[in-house]
Amino acid sequence: MIDVKNIRNDFPILSKKVYGHPLVYLDNAATTQKPRYVSEKVKDFYINSNSNIHRGVHYLSEKASMAYEDARVTVKNFINAASLREIIFTAGTTAAINLLADSLGRSFIKENDEIIITEMEHHSNIEPWRVLCSRNNASLKVIPFDDQGKLLIEKIPSMINDKTKLIALCHVSNVLGVINPVKEIIQTAHRAGVPVLLDAAQSVPHLPVDVHDLGCDFLVFSGHKMYAETGIGILYGKEKYLDMLPPAQTGGGMIDYLDFTGSTYADLPLKFEAGTPNYAGAVSLAAAIDYLHNIGVESIARYEQDLICYAVDRLNEEENIIIYGNTFPHCGSVSFNFEGVHPYDAAAIMDKMGIAIRSGTHCAQPVMAHFGVKGTMRLSVALYNTREEIDLLIEGTRKAKSLLL
Amino acid sequence: MNINDKQDRLIKEFAPLNGWIAKYEYLINIGQQLPKMEDKYKTAENQINGCQSQLWVAAELRDGKLMFQADSNAKITRGIIAIVLNVINNHPPEDIYTSKLYFLDNIGFKTNLSPTRLNGLNSIIKRINKLCLIHMQL
Would you say A249 and A274 are in contact if contact means Cβ atoms under 8 Å apart? Predict the structure, then answer.
């Protein structure tokens, strides 16, 4: 069992008051708060080690480069990748997906090829593929989900053919908090020789994620949703694929030899890291992973699972409640509405009570379209949230309803 | 009453309200008094982007004065637009265009709005100014 009271002390922002009320921060799927441990590691890096990496032979450059490459080792071990060559630092999940889409678009995606995504993706796992398909005259196919939030995976075999180049899907939905049966989907895809990209932005913060066990070919996630700073994320790719793919961006740091008539590129992983990377961000990501390890990834997963189940149970007791994707175990997030209450109104009122939740489309307009709504409220938990905070949220929704109904 | 008199009156009305919940309650009530917009005006052209909720604003000139209609599916947004219309309705477009709507800031509906919602408010003011320009004479 994790000691939440102590953990909360690690996060100075949690003791803030908002409009005179104690902050109840339940918008963790958007971004998590940062523990002192992470901010101090970054501060220490800037004070004692800062220098551009992989450039100079001088002491500080060596020290900074080592910190950056140590971070890569930490990430590799965290997701159980086979090699450091499989870990590419990016600016975040969106940047990682765009990198992959750009690179595939320059090389492997040809006219009439097909890419499969799902109906429950975040815009950042739709638009890069939609734009790529439109640019290369390829087509996008969409795996639907049912009203419970369950992907209709039985449709997948008939959607795959010899034109299928990739299946890209979320491990956990950022709106519904549904955990998709990704292992099964990956096995189906692999039987047909199709690689799979997992958007793990909403799973890595909450579940142990092991790329070897899952078998995915690519996996992307963001640091800021798992207690690290903003502007750092990961593209994991199986070495054979990353070796085949051309760089999406070119520039400093990824050149092996260059003159005005041609060039050769550095080997993996630097091939995909043109320009000065966010090395301080990498340090913060490694610190966040250390922080999670110190508490225990499995314990965190169990604690958060219990908490989100409690939240769903409490919400289900409320009158006029509509929960989207209700019949499955939730992970991290739950989306809901109250009949006759606009989610914006309710979230705005709760904000003034110190309760931070999200309202709107959550960058997943196809999910809203599926349920025929303009928006939902979403609460999302982190390891520092408590049952008492869920109770305060329930009180908040009641207060909002009393004003709005 | 000119536009500034109306703004000052609203500031006075909100002043005794203690705390945000009371302000919102008052705002929601004002919004409920806003006449419903006819569906034919709820067009894409009249819809304002940048809001989390749907919001439509339209205006027509009657005897040299602009008469606005507005509606939203969210009650707080409806309240905000209602107090804006209470201030600007039934004035010549030139007067509305040249006025500065300081009351929102004063009541606290501006500084306490997050950027996305502030964009919504900015979009409202932009749309109002655009409607004024359409009806202004050289």
Answer: yes
**Amino acid residing at A205:** P
- DSSP code at position B18: -
Name the 3-class secondary structure at B3.
Answer: helix
pLDDT in tens, chain A (405 residues): 899 999 999 999 999 999 999 999 999 999 999 999 999 999 999 999 999 998 778 999 999 999 999 999 999 999 999 999 999 999 999 999 999 999 999 999 999 999 999 999 999 999 999 999 999 999 999 999 999 999 999 999 999 999 999 999 999 999 999 999 999 999 999 999 999 999 999 999 999 999 999 999 999 999 999 999 999 999 999 999 999 999 999 999 999 999 999 999 999 999 999 999 999 999 999 999 999 999 999 999 999 999 999 999 999 999 999 999 976 679 999 999 999 999 999 999 999 999 999 999 999 999 999 999 999 999 999 999 999 999 999 999 999 999 999
B30 token code pair: 């004002």
Beta strands per DSSP E along B20-115: 55-62, 65-72
Taking the model in full, what pTM does it have?
0.94
| Cβ A378 vs Cβ A29: under 8 Å | yes
Domains and CATH numbers, chain B: 3-136 (3.90.1010.10)
Q: Do B28 and A404 touch (CB under 8 A)?
A: yes
Are the beta carbons of B56 and B43 closer than 8 angstroms? Answer: yes
Supply A392's token pair.
């305060």
Residues of A taking part in catalysis: 363
Burial class for A135, CB neighbours closer than 10 Å (0-12, 13-18, 19+): exposed
- φ/ψ of residue B67, rounded to 5: -115, 120
Question: CB contacts < 8 Å between A and B, how many?
Answer: 43
**Given CB atoms, is B2 within the 8 Å cutoff of chain A?**
no
Q: What is the DSSP string of A45-79?
A: HHHHT-S-TTT--SHHHHHHHHHHHHHHHHHHHHH
Touching check for A375 and chain B: CB below 8 Å?
yes
ipTM confidence score: 0.87
